[in-house]
Specification:
about 130 residues; alpha+beta; two-stranded antiparallel sheet; about 25% strand; disordered N terminus
């Protein structure tokens, strides 16, 4: 565990206007700009905890892995950040990225949920199979 930084006392009160969850590609200028505004606080469970330098908000970033999609997710409670379940935020991002639901039903046996656009599976089964974008 990395040492904790100074408390957020005295930080600006305006909140960052970033989405609650976003894809993170370190090679992009957007990702680099966002990372420059964050201070690394801790690392655990293949994730990193950051605090925004201006408003003190906490953000979890998946550790770099060339085979996995990385997400930058805002978290409300930094005390249990390493175990925060971001799957609902990631699914919402996947749904938006795919353009919503399709007109067919999921091909998984027994499932009648609508498919994602450009997928043969519903949101739950697409996510379960590892689809993230």
């Amino acid at each position: 565990m990395m040492p904790q930084s100074a408390p957020t006392q005295g930080l600006a009160t305006a909140e960052v206007s970033w989405p609650a969850a976003s894809y993170f590609d370190a090679a992009t200028s957007v990702a680099q700009a966002r990372l420059s505004q964050l201070e690394l606080i801790d690392r655990a469970n293949w994730c990193e905890l950051y605090r925004h330098k201006l408003d003190g908000s906490f953000w979890r970033l998946d550790a770099a892995d060339k085979y996995q999609q990385r997400f930058l997710v805002r978290i409300a409670d930094e005390t249990n950040w390493a175990n925060f379940d971001a799957s609902a935020l990631e699914k919402a991002l996947l749904l938006a990225e795919r353009g919503g639901f399709g007109t067919s039903t999921c091909i998984r046996q027994g499932c009648s949920a609508p498919t994602l656009q450009r997928s043969a599976f519903c949101l739950e089964h697409s996510y379960e199979q590892g689809l993230r974008r």
